[in-house]
Task: structure prediction
Amino acid sequence: MKDLSMVVKLVVREKKDILLSILFGFLAGITAVGLFGASGYLVSKAALIPPLYTLVLVVSFVKLLGFIRAISRYVERYVSHRATFTILSHLRVSFYEKLEPLAPGIFQKYRSGDLLARIVGDVESLQNFFLRVFYPPIVLLIVFLCTIIFTTFYSLSIALVLLGGLLVTALIVPCLFAMRQRKIEGQLREERGSLSTETTELLYGFRDLKIYRKLAEKENQLKESSDCYIKEQEKVGIHASLSQAMNSLASLVASWVVLALGAYLVVEDQLEGIFLAMLVMISLTVFENVTPMAVFPIHLEDSRRAASRLFSVVRDQSSKTQNHQDSIQLEGNQSLAIEIDKVSFAFPGEARSTLENVHLHLPAGSKTAIVGPSGSGKSTLLQLLLKIQAGYTGKVNLGGTSLDLLDKESLWSHTNAVLQENHFFYGTIRENLMLAGDDLTDIQLDEALAKVKLNHVQLTDSVLEKGGNLSGGEKQRLAIARALLKANPLWVLDEPTSSVDALTENTIYQYLFEAAKDDTLILVSHRLTGLERMDKIVVMEHGEIIEKGTFNELMDKRGYFYQMKQIEKSVFTA
Result:
């Protein structure tokens, strides 16, 4: 219930709409009771053939109640739904504010399909919290108490029957079904998450599934997941129908008891017969307000589960991330010195350390290459520097300031990053390049494209989702063009030209080193060609630094780097 309390805090921010919803909900409920009660009294009174003006007054009162009920119900629905949409807006904003600092590391804990199901499905499920869980019980309680108090003026015993009916229909029956609902609802959400995950993986991996002839197998898994989800939905539907049926049965039994007891009291001259129809009609009508309680346990459990699944993603965010207001901002446009001291890191849930006791000093304006076999921790080290990964031990300083204290936005605004995987949005080449700055001109964009040998590309050319219509080399060159346009003092390049031919790569590096001549540059590369221009080369293996120095120093040392260089030469000369 702790997660649900976070939703309640967002709900109570709409105090005005909450009070209006309760007020007009009460007016709609109590006027409905009065309307049918007056109708019952009118029928009984008319049977005694009273003066016409008496009937006219009662009929006018009935019409007035009907008018007030319709207006009140309309206003209640309008205000409550307005509050719901505003609350959902607050919920989404609050959730995304907590989620954003965790990206992209969040994908190491949650599969993309499951995360999508939480962000979309669970948020939508919480729209029923205010409409079906929060204020309807308040309205029901007020209407029932007012009705019971009114009934006591005619018969205390009938008032007690109504009170007993309230306890059964609003408390006992919902509680009994809530226990079963918790188990069913949990299974439904798990199956929905599984279905979303299977669907996402089928769409993302369709090409590879086709190539390896595993599409039919994956489609069967998706169908099985869909069938399981449908079965759970059927269980929820049956459970909801049974809850409503039991609630309606209890309400009708209470009304029959009121009728039988009222008839007995009339026979015993303890109740005037003219009021019997009125009390029966009041009983039938007031229990209509209990109808929402039939689905109350369903929506309560649904909201509880949704809140739990949703906020479990960001539950520990406050303790793991720094508040932007308390973070230090990087100032100026000067190159930064980097100091890494005894840094170790392991991914969550993994016993093996990806980085082990890494120590490295990079002076401001230096050019450093990090090389080594795949899986040696090169890319992970860059991710730590960019605060994409967290939870490391040791110390990392940028420009004399601890990395833990630096504001992420400030760090990223001072960094030109080209990673192994760079995202491209659906749109045009211009729109994807404009990520580097809103004030860039078409001339600047064309110049950047020319530097990375993309002269054949037009700014108006379309880009499909994830750059689906671009080759691997074109994606890398487009990402480098964005970095050149951003022109910040810290360059972090992770295999930026691995899919580019040697001649184009050489041209791109000339422009890169010219643009970064006064900046701090870190390059991760598997290729050892062209590293002579680097100030320092760091060799990593199994998460540790095993060698570091200039190109000539490492070649003279004839160690691991020398062996890698000799192997590279033999491959290209064979």
